[in-house]
Structure prediction request, 154 residues.
Amino acid sequence: MLTTDEIRELETEMAIYPTRQAASLGALRAVQRRRGWISDEDLRDVAGYLGMSADELDSIATFYSQLFRKPVGRHVIRVCDSVSCWATGAETAVRRLMETLGIRLGETTADGRFTLLPSACLGVCERAPALMIDEDVHTNWDAARMDGILARYP
Prediction:
C-alpha cells in the first residue's frame, strides 16, 4: 500500500506529464527512494494508481538498470565494464573489490552493506577506470584506493 508521502510524490510527478502513465518512471523512482527497491506488491500498487497494468509497469522497471526489482544493499556499487575501463586496469581492481567484499558481481554482502553490479558505461571514459557508489562517481580508481573509497559508505 502506498503511503501518504509516496502518493504526494507521485502526484508531483504526474503534474509534470500530460498523462498519468508518462509519470511511470518518476513514480517508480519515488517508491524506490523510500523503500530501497520495488517489490511485486509495490509495482501493483503504483500500476493501479497510474491506471496501468502491472505487466506494463514491470516492463519499464526491468528496462532501467537504476531500478531494483529485488532487495539491494544500503549502498549499490556499479563497476563500469566498458572497454575503456578494462583497458585501464579495472579487471584487477574489480577482482580485488570482490575479494574484499566477499561477493561476486550481482551479489550483496552478508551484512547488507553493499551490492555489487556491473554497468555498461558510466560516461567518464576519459577518467577510466570508474565506479559509482550510490550517486557518487569515483574515477581513476584502483585496488590501492579502494579501501578509502569504501570507508566513506558505512
